TrEMBL record:
Disulfide bonds join C60-C65. GO terms for molecular function: dihydrolipoyl dehydrogenase (NADH) activity; flavin adenine dinucleotide binding. The keyword Nucleotide-binding applies. Binds 1 FAD per subunit. Belongs to the class-I pyridine nucleotide-disulfide oxidoreductase family. The keyword Nucleotide-binding applies. InterPro entries: Class-I_Pyr_Nuc-Dis_Oxidored (IPR050151), FAD/NAD-bd_sf (IPR036188), FAD/NAD-binding_dom (IPR023753), FAD/NAD-linked_Rdtase_dimer_sf (IPR016156), Pyr_nuc-diS_OxRdtase (IPR001100), Pyr_nucl-diS_OxRdtase_dimer (IPR004099). This is Oxidoreductase. Residues 383-489 form the Pyridine nucleotide-disulphide oxidoreductase dimerisation domain. It comes from Subtercola lobariae. NAD(+) binds at G200, G201, G202, V203, V204, G205, C206, E207, G288. Keywords: FAD, Flavoprotein, NAD, Nucleotide-binding.
């Protein structure tokens, strides 16, 4: 069979199709990122098919961002109340209702029912196709439906891969056979294990350690390196102290060498490389991610299976030589391109990709200069992130170490957030720290990190300063309201000036 573009595929010829449908754009993966690509392209005037084999809304809605934050929130709210006189006396410490926490989580994810998401897709004039997508040639896909029938989809202009990522399982003897949890099981479990081990000191590991310690598990966190090692060092240190305060054990520089489960549903024994053993009821593996590209037919279009899809800043997929595929028709957005494995960055990419696909298809003028409407410039040095541990960790841009490695002339200053008036109003036991990293040549912010209660709400101001390259002498005139945590901005700037610089 031949597509509209004239390309042909022996695989397509051999396949029996129930029907063939043609759209301007086909998006593989109906998570938050795929939905946004499709929506922007439809708004730009294209016909779009959105293909999904699981739940519409994807990982973030059902197994990642939303359920994990729901699990974390109740414990955080309780501790916030316990740190304020008056509220402290009103809180019944023995009344923490774990079942209510899990039920609220279930409500947040709509009981893993995607009806409302489907209604949104249909209301946005996007055609939803349920099934598993596999490339059979350039601009051609075979969609296998649950009933076994197969539909051929042909894209007139473009296909976008938004299939996301999955948890990476290391090659440790016995691990795969021990039925370990991944982030999916950790965020969807209807029970709380009494003894819970977590492999990995990154965002998922630290957040789930916080959540499960709050819910009563005896948590042991195993990390080969410092916690949150891509952040400023004090971030991981403060989170480690907090986890220990919640009753968790934190073992740094320790990894399992053998894992064994005692029968289905039995306890799990971990043999560690320090010679000790650890016996738990469940084990969560959170050491990294791998792309969902293993069985989507990349080899039929000249790419290697199981790989992250490298892209240019317009999100066009590049081959091993760094060139777009012939015809410039394949795009990748979200986790699968490995630019920034964060939902908000994936949605940012999706907006750029949907717009540029529509513009190219309709022959409109492109804005592909740095910070243009059709590129994902912010993925490089302006990525914001919040880790919802207790305390929260919020950061944007480059750490001091990363800025130095990038060749910038760097100066950094830190400030204890507990010293600002807003912190003393917020909590009687506020613990937090802030840091800004400055490009001395241009006198602009390269990065900022905040650790403390509610600092997630501070990070967008820092993001604006980084993206806008706001000069410090202008930032000085952005007066923070009193008494708020934002006063830390003034204190950072004052500290910077006292150290010998002027604005």
């Amino acid at each position: 069979m031949t597509s509209d573009s004239g390309s042909s595929s022996s695989a397509a010829d051999a396949q029996v199709f129930a029907e063939t449908q043609t759209f301007d754009l086909v998006v593989i993966g109906a998570g938050a990122i795929g939905e946004n690509v499709a929506d922007r392209a439809v708004q730009g005037g294209l016909t779009v098919a959105l293909v999904e084999a699981e739940l519409v809304g994807g990982e973030c809605s059902y197994w990642a961002c939303m359920p994990s934050k729901a699990l974390l929130r109740s414990g955080a709210a309780l501790r916030e109340a316990q740190n304020v006189s008056g509220a402290r006396e009103a809180v019944n410490v023995d009344g923490f209702d774990v079942r209510a926490v899990l039920n609220r989580r279930n409500e947040v994810v709509n009981e893993w029912n995607d009806k409302s998401q489907v209604e949104w897709v249909e209301g946005a004039h996007i055609t939803l196709i349920r099934g598993f997508a596999r490339f059979i040639g350039p601009k051609e896909l075979a969609i296998t439906h649950e009933n076994g029938s197969v539909t051929k989809l042909v894209a007139r202009h473009a296909i976008t891969v938004s299939t996301g990522s999955a948890a990476l399982l290391p090659d440790i003897p016995g691990l795969a056979d021990s039925a370990p949890w991944t982030s999916r099981e950790a965020t969807s479990s209807q029970t709380i294990p009494k003894r819970f081990a977590i492999m990995g000191g990154g965002v998922v590991g630290c957040e789930m350690a916080t959540a499960y310690a709050s819910l009563g598990s005896e948590v042991t966190l195993l990390s080969r390196s410092a916690l949150l090692s891509t952040q400023e060092p004090f971030a991981g240190e403060l989170v480690r102290d907090s986890l220990i305060g919640l009753g968790a054990q934190v073992k740094i520089g320790v990894s399992p060498t053998q894992v064994e489960r005692n029968g289905a549903g039995g306890e799990v024994t971990l043999t560690l490389d320090d010679g000790s053993t650890l016996v738990v009821d469940e084990l969560l593996v959170a050491i990294g991610r791998t792309p969902h590209t293993g069985d989507i037919g990349l080899e039929t279009i000249g790419l290697k299976p199981h790989q992250w899809l490298s892209t240019d800043d317009t999100l066009l997929v590049l081959d091993d030589e760094g060139r777009p595929l012939e015809g410039e028709w394949l795009y990748a957005t979200g986790d699968v391109n490995h630019r920034a494995l964060l939902t908000h960055q994936g949605k940012y990419q999706a907006r750029a990709a949907g717009d540029v696909i529509a513009a190219r298809a309709l022959g409109k003028k492109l804005s592909i200069e740095s910070w243009g409407a059709h590129v994902a410039t912010a993925d490089h040095e302006a990525v914001p992130q919040v880790t919802f541990t207790d305390p929260e960790v919020a950061s944007v841009g480059l750490t001091e170490e990363a800025a130095k490695k990038a060749g910038y002339s760097v100066r950094a200053v830190e400030y204890d957030i507990s010293w600002v008036a807003g912190a003393s109003v917020t909590s009687e036991n506020y613990v937090g720290r802030a840091k800004m990293v400055v490009d001395e040549k241009r006198q602009v912010l390269l990065g900022a990190t905040f650790v403390g209660q509610d600092v997630g709400e501070l990070i967008h101001s820092a993001t604006i300063a980084v993206v806008g390259e706001v000069p410090l002498n202008r930032l000085w005139h952005a007066v923070p309201s009193y008494p708020t945590l934002s006063e830390v901005w003034l204190r950072l700037l004052e500290t910077y000036g006292r150290d010998g610089s002027s604005f």
